[in-house]
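Late entry, written up from scratch paper. The run itself happened at the end of the previous shift, but nothing got recorded in the book at the time, so transcribing now.
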Amino acid sequence: VVVPHTGFASLLTSYAEALGLGPGSRVLQFASLSFDAAFAELCKALLSGSTLVMAPSERLDPGAPLAALLAEQRVTQATIPPAALGVMTVGEVPADITLLVAGEATPPELAGRWSAGRRMVNAYGPTEATVCATISAPLSGVAEPPLGTPIPNARVRVLDAALRPTAPGVVGELYLSGPGIARGYLNRPATSAERFVADPFGPPGTRMYRTGDLAKWTRDGVLMFVGRADE
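Output as recorded:
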């Protein structure tokens, strides 16, 4: 995926605000360097004046090794996939760590269990949109975690088959546009043309990314994940 630099400023601003990053913060490097999330972890730490906490892979194993690392290194912010949190117990992890969950849908029960007594937010975004397009408000209680609201400069639309915006509560396909949208897939022009389509809402020549995800807006303007269009 050919991703330009134009979306990085918005990405870092949104992370800093949602997670309270700054000097004194200690951010865990959890994702493998082969994943886009690793780049986000590196940048949000080093470009906010925070400390980046790195460790050997065996210390990042979900469960006792990861819990011990979080405590020993006094980590204050960590991005951990729901699947990893699912095999850990809440009591293992210090309560003052801010958690960001992303990469897959977070079950309501897991959100309720891990958000109790701590700051926890849900983020959504594919590599094609520079890692992140939306971030939720802090989660609370056993409920379906929302995808949240668009980060600065990201344009998020739920459209029907005719590319018309859907009304609140009506399911449609999720399209993303803005400065963070990738240029396409390297040396794959046909696939790029299929997924990166003309943006009828923007200036001539602009494009939007067709995610293949189904979503809907609430009446309060919060985005909810529904499923995949190909399922």
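The chain has two domains: 7-147, 155-228.
(Scratch paper discarded after transcription.)
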